[in-house]
Write a structure and sequence with these properties.
The complex is a heterodimer of chains A (about 140) and B (about 230). Helices cover about 20% and strands about 25% of the residues of chain A. Chain A is α+β, with helices and mostly antiparallel strands and about 140 residues long. In chain A, the strands form two sheets. A four-stranded antiparallel beta sheet of chain A has the order 4-7-2-8, covered by helices on one side. Chain A has a three-stranded antiparallel beta sheet with strand order 3-6-5. In chain A, helix 1 runs antiparallel to helix 2. Chain B is built from four helices and 14 strands. Chain B starts with 6 loop residues before the first strand and ends with a helix. Chain B has two domains: about 100 residues, Ribosomal Protein L25, Chain P (Beta Barrel), CATH 2.40.240.10; about 90 residues, RNA Polymerase Alpha Subunit, Chain A, domain 2 (Beta Complex). The chains are: A alpha+beta (about 140), B alpha+beta (about 230). The interface between A and B is large, with 41 and 43 residues.
Chain lengths: ~140, ~230
């Protein structure tokens, strides 16, 4: 799975702040059930991939898994035992900005109990508290 | 068809705003507003439990009995959700006549599994979970049952749907309702992950290497200046 974008405008980014809750991507849009983040975190590409593998191993090609977040933010980190200064460090990994309410994964085509178990396994791999949600009311 | 119109008691809201709405929610009331048919909008509050259970059943039309006023037939026009994305915080109700034509979106209940979805690796996916319908208020169904057992081919479209008399689908007739897709097994090994991590993205604003500044090219000029 791709853990970073194919094309970016700038190589490095400032850290920024993540205030408030998610106002977009905060409801189940594609699947039947979803995994919603309840905290704020930079979710690395590796962590997203770990979640995907956990769900796919459990579902064994039974349902369809949607990944709703993408690691688009470059995170740079200075090497150990390096003095401060001399410019910004190299990019260490790529992360997705996750706010409370963001839907991380969605599952479709499986019964509720199976989806619940699959998403619980994914939640164990996430560095943030999560909950399972279903589609919202339609009018 | 839903002929049942539940009666809900509502209290008029005298104080408006976030703070007062929040206090109402803590008391188990749901802020709502009734508008339409040329009358003034009326901010009200309804019992949250009753309203949500009715909405979960797929009901769209309610008889709202405002205390100290007449009862009105109302259609749920819009729901506002909170930060969790699925928690209702406000309801918009519009005054309607039961014989009025309206456009509403109704939940689709898929039943059965087609033969083509029983293959290894095949998954039945639902492209649409709600269908927009144009019908009379009294004819609004609670949900639409779609039986996929006898699905022809791998795709079922809106045009193939058999709707009851009086109901017209507004959605694109060529839009897929459900389809059978074969899920390909992706590489899950560590090798695939490392290969993906090592690649670097293309930087659009990266400076192109100039032959003058390239190693070997620019050094000669500097050396000449020093001389």
């Amino acid at each position: 799975m791709k853990l970073l974008p194919s094309r970016v405008k700038y190589r490095k980014q400032q850290r920024g702040k993540m205030k408030g809750c998610a106002t977009r991507g905060n409801y189940v849009a594609f699947g039947d059930y979803g995994l919603q983040s309840l905290g704020t975190v930079w979710l690395s590409g590796r962590q997203i991939d770990a979640g995907r593998i956990a769900a796919q191993h459990f579902l064994r090609r039974q349902g369809k898994l949607y990944i709703r977040v993408f690691p688009e933010k470059p995170i740079s980190k200075k090497p150990l035992e390096t003095r401060m200064g001399t410019g910004k460090a190299e990019v260490e990994y790529w992360a997705a900005r996750v706010k409370p309410g963001t839907i991380l994964f969605e599952v479709e085509g499986v019964p509720e109990d199976l989806a619940k178990q699959a998403l619980a396994r994914v939640a164990h791999k996430m560095p943030v508290r999560c909950r399972m949600v279903s589609r919202r009311l339609a009018v | 068809m839903s002929h049942e119109v539940p009666v809900l008691e509502a209290q008029p809201r005298e104080r408006l705003g976030t703070r007062y709405a929040k206090r109402l929610r803590l008391k188990g009331q749901l802020p709502a507003v009734i508008y339409g048919h040329g009358s003034e909008p009326t901010p009200v509050s309804v019992n949250e439990k009753l309203m949500l259970s009715a909405l979960r059943r797929g009901l769209h039309v309610f008889e709202i009995k405002v205390s100290g006023g007449a009862s009105e037939t109302c259609l749920v026009k819009e729901l506002q959700f909170g930060w969790q994305g699925d928690n209702v915080v406000h309801v918009d109700l519009t005054r309607v006549n039961l014989d009025e034509m309206v456009t509403v979106s109704v939940t689709i209940n898929f039943i059965g599994t087609p033969e083509s979805a029983k293959r290894i690796g095949a998954v039945l996916t639902h492209d649409i979970s709600e269908l927009e319908l144009h019908c009379k208020v009294r004819d609004i169904p609670e949900s639409i049952r779609v039986d996929l057992t006898n699905m022809v081919g791998d795709i079922m479209t809106v045009a193939q749907l058999k709707l009851a008399a009086g109901l017209t689908a507004v959605s694109n007739p060529h839009a897929a309702l459900a389809r059978v897709v074969v899920v390909l097994e992706e590489a899950t090994g560590e090798a695939a992950t490392t290969a993906a991590t090592l690649a670097e993205p293309e930087v659009l604003t990266a400076k192109k290497e100039d032959p003058a500044t390239a190693p070997g090219g620019g050094d000669d000029k500097k050396a000449d200046k020093k001389k």
